[in-house]
Amino acid sequence: MEKQGKTIKGSVLNVGSANDEYNYKRFFPHATIFHNLDKRNRPNVDIVADVEWMPQATNSEDCIVACFMLYDVSNPQVALNEFRRVLKPNGVLLATFQTPFTKTETLSLLEKLRIEEFEEYFEDGQLICVFIRAMKLGD
């Protein structure tokens, strides 16, 4: 996250942020705008909305951060489609999640979610982070 965050300029939307207890903003020193979106109204949340129906305009965000939240979404494909809608062309989705699945099972899941190209980082066989270019998200 820290490595990728340094390359992001412009607007960053942290979705499923809860109260942003990890202070992800610190990873984005070149961000001009940083918003926290969560479905619950909590401290540090400035946009209360569901990730499957976000109020952001189409092509409005340079980066979406989705840390450890996709497992909590009723329909991950709808959320990913919404991320694609909101991201600017060549925008970046930084998605992190842990999974009990093997690398093969996780890559199969990403394929089922119709994510065509991504960079994945595994640690001890467990998926830690996925970086997805918006234009590569499946239709």
Automatic annotation (TrEMBL):
<dbReference type="Pfam" id="PF08241">
    <property type="entry name" value="Methyltransf_11"/>
</dbReference>
<protein>
    <recommendedName>
        <fullName>Methyltransferase type 11 domain-containing protein</fullName>
    </recommendedName>
</protein>
<feature type="domain" description="Methyltransferase type 11">
    <location>
        <begin position="41"/>
        <end position="94"/>
    </location>
</feature>
<dbReference type="InterPro" id="IPR013216">
    <property type="entry name" value="Methyltransf_11"/>
</dbReference>
<dbReference type="GO" id="GO:0008757">
    <property type="term" value="F:S-adenosylmethionine-dependent methyltransferase activity"/>
</dbReference>
<dbReference type="InterPro" id="IPR029063">
    <property type="entry name" value="SAM-dependent_MTases_sf"/>
</dbReference>
